[in-house]
DNA sequence: CGAGTTTGACCTGCGC
DNA sequence: GCGCAGGTCAAACTCG
């Protein structure tokens, strides 16, 4: 990873701080919290790791209509193996990027890849490689706009970033 | 050699 | 009860 990310990812997403901490462009972001999600104004953002920087505010509406995304976020918890009453810190955002794995200052290990319904692009599953940290993230490309990468974080890091 | 990736199999919940 | 879909596991493989 790089040394360009002195701050850890947002355990408590906050629009301006969140965007300033991360070195990639956010075209959309939203928070999942107890089946609620929200999106804020599109932040201005300077990127060092994202090659194409194009803001598309209109994508918010497209994202709201992603049924598969709602499914996975509101009812299914880790394959349904855990009690759905367990609410984890979870938030997702959409970026316009050629690369799927954004450099957020943590080390991630890929543990699964799956084709999902209603999306020709595979969904990739990552887990924080730090021992004892159970943070996971899912990364998939938007079915309507392959330039957009939808990243969903789940859980809180129990350690500082590796950078 | 260790860390990370790939990929098919497996498990579980949900809808019909 | 069965099939489908999403998520995870783990062995094999790759790479530095």
TrEMBL record:
Region: Disordered, residue numbers: 40-83
Gene name linked to the record: Vigan.03G248400
Pfam families: WRKY
Compartments in which it is found: Nucleus
InterPro entries assigned to the protein according to its UniProt record, in alphabetical order: WRKY_dom (IPR003657), WRKY_dom_sf (IPR036576), WRKY_plant (IPR044810)
GO molecular function, one term: sequence-specific DNA binding
Organism the protein comes from: Vigna angularis var. angularis
GO cellular component: nucleus
Biased composition (Polar residues): 44-59
Keyword Nucleotide-binding: no
UniProt name for this protein: WRKY domain-containing protein
Protein keywords: DNA-binding, Nucleus, Transcription, Transcription regulation
Domain WRKY, chain residue ranges per copy: 97-162
Superkingdom assignment: Eukaryota
């Amino acid at each position: 990873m790089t040394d360009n990310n002195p701050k850890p990812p947002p355990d408590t997403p906050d629009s301006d701080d969140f965007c300033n901490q991360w070195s990639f462009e956010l075209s959309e972001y939203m928070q999942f919290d107890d089946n609620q999600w929200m999106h804020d104004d599109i932040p201005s953002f300077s990127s060092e790791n994202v090659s194409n920087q194009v803001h598309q505010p209109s994508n918010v509406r497209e994202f709201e209509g992603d049924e598969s995304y709602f499914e996975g976020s509101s009812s299914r918890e880790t394959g349904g193996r855990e009690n759905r009453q367990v609410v984890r810190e979870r938030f997702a955002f959409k970026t316009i990027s050629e690369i799927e794995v954004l450099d957020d200052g943590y080390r991630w290990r890929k543990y699964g890849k799956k084709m999902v319904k209603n999306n020709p692009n595979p969904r990739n599953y990552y887990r924080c490689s730090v021992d004892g940290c159970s943070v996971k993230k899912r990364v998939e490309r938007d079915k309507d706009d392959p330039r957009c990468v939808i990243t969903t974080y789940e859980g809180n890091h129990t350690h500082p970033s590796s950078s």
